[in-house]
Amino acid sequence: MVKANCASVNDFEWLLQLRFYWEAGTDRCLVRQTNTTHLYGYEYLGNPSRLVITPLTDRCYTTLTTALHLHRGGLPQGPAGTGKTETVKDLAKNLAKQCIVFNCSDGLDYKSLGRMFSGLAQTGAWSCFDEFNRIEVEVLSVVAQQILSILTAVTQGKKRFVFEGKEIKLDPTCGIFVTMNPGYAGRSELPENLKALLRPMSMMKPDIALIIEIGLFSEGFVTSKLLSKKMNTLYHLMTQQ
User: Fold this and answer.
1) What are the angstrom distances between the C-alpha of 168 and each of 128, 150, 229?
2) Alpha-carbon torsion 208, 214, 220, 224, what sign?
3) pLDDT digits over 135-176, tens only?
4) Of 20, 28, 113, 175, which has the maximum CB count within 10 A?
């Protein structure tokens, strides 16, 4: 931010950061990014390891928090190993929300997915459905209607709503995220009514050198920048074998 001459609380470089505020008088912790505000979840998640924040991570955070603000789901998509699922999980840790990762397969039907969505809506947890486009197109069309009913109830500020024929309670802080590996054999194309409910984010190759440098620095290595260049070269040589 110093390099970007960020000198005001209204500068975009500052607004882009995930910021935590204690709201006086209401005893609430708020998490803000750009023009969005989210309640801190207070879910105890232990003391797990955290992601190294790169420019790609920042862009993904901004897209996902904006999607939540607009009462929509998130759709990080890209090749394997770009950090789609890990970024969603790390954002959940930042907001102290439980994030349940589910690996999808072509054997899933709309009833089992409906039970998952029902639980998420009632508990306020986040879900990350990995490889969502492995599910059959016919099932995805029904799933789109299930997601729409939850997001519509959140938008309308309801406390209870009817889902799959049953009236259930609603926690408006629930989040629905899916990840995709487009272009692989055996993958379905998402229906248009489902695409409209999810905000897409293209994930590209992460900055390996920066991740190695910060990882080494956090472990106490003084010459982390020099070592990261060497390890990055070694890493690329290994991937070419």
Assistant:
1) 22, 11, 54
2) positive
3) 888 888 899 999 999 999 999 999 999 998 899 999 999 999
4) 175
Q: Show the tokens assigned to 98.
A: 């439980």
Q: Give the residue carrying structure tokens 């209204």.
A: 10
The answer to whether 38 and 68 are in contact (CB under 8 A) is yes
Cβ pair 31, 95 in contact under 8 A? yes
For residue 49, pLDDT over 90 is answered with no
Which regions of 15-148 does DSSP assign to beta strands (E)? 19-23, 28-33, 36-39, 73-77, 99-103, 126-130
The pTM for the full model equals 0.89
Q: Which of 173, 123, 119 is nearest to 146 (CA)?
A: 119
Q: Encoding tokens for residue 95?
A: 């907001």
Integer Cα distance of 54 and 56 in angstroms: 5
**Residues 41-50: what's their mean pLDDT?**
87
Residues 6+ positions from 126 with CB-CB distance below 8 Å:
88, 92, 97, 98, 99, 100, 120, 174, 175, 176, 177
SS3 of residue 205 by DSSP? coil
Q: What is the pLDDT of residue 26?
A: 81
By the 8 A CB rule, do 86 and 48 touch? no
What would the mean pLDDT of 13-25 be, rounded to a whole number? 88
